[in-house]
């Protein structure tokens, strides 16, 4: 797999810095599982084809150190999705979780 250094081949996105900055660190199981989920999502959405999916999975499970993950990550498009959680706590209407919204003038009440 040929990869432009520090960039994702398909997505043009930067490779996660922890893999570049600590290339000789052992692959964490959580990272391996997270990348596996990204590969599955990319395949399910049609962003990568079946042969590439299986090739990237093979490289992922053979990886021993972070540097081994860089070519795998380069083949995975970044998927952006909206967060289901409000940014600053509370619910999306503006009160504490589980409480009905209140305030001046709301539904004609004070």
Report a brief summary of the structure:
This protein is mainly α and 110 residues long. Helices cover 39% and strands 0% of the residues. The chain has a domain at 12-79.
Give structural notes.
The chain is an all-alpha fold. It has a domain of 68 residues. Helices cover 39% and strands 0% of the residues. It contains 4 helices and no strands. The protein is globular. The N terminus is likely disordered.
Structural descriptors:
110 residues, mainly alpha, 4 helices, disordered N terminus
Residue-averaged pLDDT, rounded?
Answer: 73
**Unreliable residue stretches:** 1-13
- The SSE order reads HHHH
Summed up, the helix count is 4
Structural class assignment: mainly alpha
**Strand runs, count:** 0
Radius of gyration: 20 Å
Q: What would you call the shape?
A: globular
> How far is the N terminus from the C terminus?
64 Å
* DSSP helix fraction: 25-40%
């Amino acid at each position: 797999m040929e990869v432009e250094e520090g960039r994702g081949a398909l997505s043009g996105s930067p490779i996660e810095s922890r893999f570049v900055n600590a290339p000789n660190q052992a692959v964490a199981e959580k990272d391996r599982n997270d990348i596996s989920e990204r590969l599955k999502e990319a395949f399910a959405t049609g962003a990568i084809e079946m042969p590439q999916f299986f090739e990237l999975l093979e490289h992922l499970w053979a990886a021993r150190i972070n540097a081994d993950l860089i070519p795998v990550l380069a083949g995975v498009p970044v998927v952006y999705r909206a967060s289901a959680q409000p940014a600053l706590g509370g619910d999306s209407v503006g009160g504490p979780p589980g409480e009905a919204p209140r305030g001046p003038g709301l539904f004609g009440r004070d």
